């Protein structure tokens, strides 16, 4: 169980402006292993540890044939176990295995299953087949034995097929590390699907073996105008926007202890919202009187989510206003102000009215 606990701690969430998946951190190399399709078209990704801390990681090698990518965090991740990748030949059909990751971008989960086939040929690749529950967001996370060995990288589930998931055998990964050693400057690189040469710029053919190369491997996705606007606003107040990305037109991060979410609602409004606190169990009149006294500046509102008894602080702006040059700078200023107010207000409500921290708070 100790080995399983160690492995579970190295599993991270990998997010981009287009979606999210999972990955795992190899401390000795300061690298995150994930699937290529999780970071396809990206040069950077957001990494979220299970303690909710977020970092930016650089995509430095992709192997589209194997569907593997290597990412380098901008800092050495602290308090992470140094788990080694070991190759094992003892895996058998019907062995119990665990899938670790962040399905649908939710919190870290572990699901159990069995090995259906230790060597299932799909296309031109051999995979480990399992009946473990594999959902979008699990991609890139580890498939783990009950003895605490990483067996593979969870990569896919057949569409409309239940109890059929696949993982890339871990035996492939040490070779990926060897190939990466040739990337001395740690630049974005593509592994040739034929000769495994590293290619650092867009080419129609591999300069080493002449293999034709898919141009999409080298293409970099561009942010849409709204995303550019939001990320410019975050930069102004000193926040690294890449580390906040959590999917398409969605950003998530902490300002102090307050969780901030920025997202588009019904293709009509941009919301900046924060779950501040849980209502106190007594003296509700005092806090409601304060909320109803309109203590916030224009455009900011309190809201109450009754199912959680949680007070939210929000700012809403119509997308058409963002497109208007007259209002752009004012809106950016408002975004900065509500982030500061959220960090102040949760502490104020706890101290003044004996509220409890929101379950989303970073305590």
Automatic annotation (TrEMBL):
<protein>
    <recommendedName>
        <fullName>Peptidase S1</fullName>
    </recommendedName>
</protein>
<dbReference type="GO" id="GO:0004252">
    <property type="term" value="F:serine-type endopeptidase activity"/>
</dbReference>
<dbReference type="GO" id="GO:0006508">
    <property type="term" value="P:proteolysis"/>
</dbReference>
<dbReference type="Pfam" id="PF13365">
    <property type="entry name" value="Trypsin_2"/>
</dbReference>
<dbReference type="InterPro" id="IPR001940">
    <property type="entry name" value="Peptidase_S1C"/>
</dbReference>
<dbReference type="InterPro" id="IPR009003">
    <property type="entry name" value="Peptidase_S1_PA"/>
</dbReference>
């Amino acid at each position: 169980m100790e080995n399983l606990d160690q492995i579970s701690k190295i599993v991270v969430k990998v997010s981009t402006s287009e979606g999210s998946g999972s990955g795992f951190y190899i401390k000795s190399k300061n690298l995150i292993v994930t699937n290529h399709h999780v970071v396809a078209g990206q040069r950077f990704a957001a990494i979220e540890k299970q303690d909710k801390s977020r970092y930016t990681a650089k995509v430095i090698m992709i192997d589209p044939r194997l569907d593997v990518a290597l990412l380098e965090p901008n800092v050495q991740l602290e308090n992470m176990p140094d788990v080694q990748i070991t190759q094992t030949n003892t895996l058998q059909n019907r062995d119990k295995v665990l899938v670790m990751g962040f399905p649908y971008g939710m919190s870290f989960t572990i699901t159990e299953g069995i090995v259906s086939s230790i060597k299932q040929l799909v296309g031109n690749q051999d995979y480990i087949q399992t009946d473990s529950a594999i959902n979008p967001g699990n991609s890139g996370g580890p498939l783990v034995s009950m003895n605490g060995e990483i067996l593979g990288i969870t990569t896919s589930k057949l569409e409309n097929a239940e109890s059929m998931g696949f993982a890339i055998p871990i035996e492939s990964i040490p070779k990926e590390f060897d190939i990466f050693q040739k990337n001395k400057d740690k630049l974005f690189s593509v592994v040739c699907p034929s000769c495994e040469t590293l290619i650092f710029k867009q080419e129609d053919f591999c300069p080493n073996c002449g293999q034709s190369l898919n141009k999409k491997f080298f293409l970099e996705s561009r942010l849409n105008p709204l995303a550019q606007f939001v990320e410019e606003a975050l930069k102004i107040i000193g926040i690294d926007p890449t580390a906040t990305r959590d999917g398409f037109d969605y950003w998530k991060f902490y300002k102090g202890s307050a969780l901030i979410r920025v997202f588009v609602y019904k293709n009509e409004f941009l919301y900046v919202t924060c779950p501040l606190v849980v209502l106190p169990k007594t003296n509700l009149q005092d806090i409601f009187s304060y909320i109803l006294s309109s203590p916030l500046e224009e455009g900011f509102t309190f809201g109450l989510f009754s199912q959680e008894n949680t007070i939210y602080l929000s700012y809403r702006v119509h997308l058409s206003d963002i497109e208007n040059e007259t209002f752009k700078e004012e809106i950016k200023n408002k975004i900065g102000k509500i982030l500061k107010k959220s960090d102040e207000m949760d502490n104020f409500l706890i101290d003044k009215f004996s509220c409890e921290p929101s379950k989303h708070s970073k305590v």
